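Annotated sample (chain length 476).
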Amino acid sequence: MAVTVEFSTIPEMFDRITAKYARSDRPVLMHKVDKQYRSVSYSNLHRRVELFSLGLSSIGVKKDDRVAIISENRPEWVVADMGIVTLGAIDVPLYPTLPPPQIAYILNDAGVKVVIVSNLLQLAKVLKIRSEVKDLHHIILMSEKLEQRSEDTFTFREVFNMGKAVKSSHPTFFRELQYHVKPEDLLTIIYTSGTTGNPKGVMLTHQNLVSNIKASAEVLPFGETDTFLSFLPLCHSFERMAGYYTAMACGSTTAYAESPETVSDNLLEIHPTVVTTVPRLFERIYSRMMKQVDSSPPVRQRIFHWAVGIGRQFARAKSTGAVSPVLRIQHALADRLVFAKVKQKTGGRIRFFVSGGAALSKELGEFFEAVGVLIIEGYGLTETAPVLAANRLDDFKYGTVGKPIPGVEIKIAPDGEILAKGPNVMKGYYNNPEATAEVIDKEGWFHTGDVGMFDPQGHLMITDRKKHLFVSSGGK
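Output written by the structure step:
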């Protein structure tokens, strides 16, 4: 499938998708308020983004200014992001878990003018390093509780009110802004994890993200009937591109988990059809499942292991197109006795999971396929916006990260390193031309630092890491 509207920039995508579903009852976002999930309509989201964007312009935010977001996943993250980029400004998303010294480094390195924070905890961290950040002019708080007043600190509601004043005097200003943004303009600066030394700011343009959104939507069939459960941080390039931008561009609904710890509960509340995640989730589900099996009566244990064995046979036979009538009957019984209960714990409607950020073990992938839960694994880096390769629903192989997505070239260097080229490759590292030259060669090939090979069918396998870095199953 493909995206449901045509666009060349993120503001253009937002304008066209919200116009397409302006009269629809389907929510674009869902979040929990007072222990219940509430919906945000396309028209309501458009109105909030417009007012917020105009409010930002009234405090001096303009094209190419850098604006930071320090927040957990919530609708206000989307409002802030879309409000920033519609102005042609550049957003700088930060992990809400970062300590004040790292926040200060990133804000200074990026020359951030405005910081948007989710709550008083994040506000306190910014205030602690405020005097160290020379370009910071304003702080905006998403929550309405603002105990310490100052002339340069505002709540979301106050920014909305400023936006209303701008709209009343310039009714068409917001629409005019959207079409001033060009595909080659910088969209975001995402700082990579600083496992060694200071983090580097990855510069991604609208074209980088848009090309990746469209290519990903061709590979994975997201659509209007899909509901995503989002729990990976939106400041992570994988969640932002897949679970936010691509989901929105395909007309899907995104529901935010309360936290990573409540995912198992939220799955049962939201009944998602797609979840973008990291291997750690499957490790937890598998561990919990096996503990329950090991503590159950011997008869139930035997039934479980019999069913998994049948599931493995069925998966192998299905891949060759030769499922015998007997195996089909056995699989139906295994599904009723075991697999249906497993799938029910994921909400009962899952079509597939999308796994990225770290390697998914072949054994884990094959186990979940056996019990009827399909995991589609992909591969990429922040510097490639991020997807380079992905398995397909009709062409997947565990132990590999699939085939290159449309528009992306991948080749293996003589020393085994994976090199990539395409419209999704970053513009470079912010304020760091030396580091940029180290990873993008004169022919435009991006050097991933990963070592790999293609199997005979063209699936990419990651076999090693060129540098001595270890990526955890949580994607860090």
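Annotation: The first helix runs from residue 10 to 20.
Annotation: The chain is about 40% helix and 20% strand.
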